Structures are given as C-alpha cells and as structure tokens.
Amino acid sequence: MASVNVVLFSWIFFLALFVTLTTSNPVVRRGFCLSLCGDVNNVTCPSGYDCLSNGCGHQCYRTTFQQPPGCPMMKCAYNCPLGFVRDENGCEGCDCDYSRLTQGSSTGTQA
C-alpha cells in the first residue's frame, strides 16, 4: 500500500510541476525588426501614441489616445505600427495610417 501511495504522489508531483512550468513562462513575442518611428528616421507618432521598442525595432503604441466623444470604440483585428487613419471628426477606423512614411525619403516628412 505504501508503494502505491509513493507512485501516486510521484505522478501528482510531476503533473503539478509540468503544469507549473508550462503555464508560468509566457511566450515573449519579438516584434519585427524595423524602426518605423523615432530618431533613426525622424518619424513621429500621432498624438496619443508613443514610439516604443517592440522587442527588436520600434513602432507607435497607444499610450494616452482616446476616441473623441461620439466616436465608436473600434476593435480592429490587427495592430498598425504607425497608428490608425482618423476621419474628419478625429475618430480612428481600422485602416493603418502610413502617411508619415514617404517613398524615397528617410526623414518621414512630405517633400
């Protein structure tokens, strides 16, 4: 009877250890390795966003932005690295805003 208890206890211990190890270490996802904003390319983020590291490069993340009153709260299926397009009322939609980037320009400003 004692050997059955030892075997049962061992199985429970290893099962608990396995569950603890597999759930306590979240997967750290590294972002893409392009710096889409910041001092490297002089591209600034829109108001309400900050240029932060994504683990490899830099992109704009919402920090203080809130939809203006009367705008619907959007739940977009993806993240936009430079923010979302805003309509004439300042409301964000789910289209990415790449207007800060221009082809052939390293400054990120319109020529």
UniProtKB/TrEMBL annotation:
Antistasin-like domain boundaries: 71-96
Regions that span the bilayer: none
Keyword Cell inner membrane attributed: no
Pfam family, one: Antistasin
A molecular function (GO) term: serine-type endopeptidase inhibitor activity
Listed Gene3D superfamilies: Antistasin, domain 1 (2.10.22.10)
Signal peptide segment: 1-24
Keywords: Protease inhibitor, Serine protease inhibitor, Signal
InterPro entries in alphabetical order: Antistasin-like, Hirudin/antistatin
Protein name: Iron/Zinc purple acid phosphatase-like protein
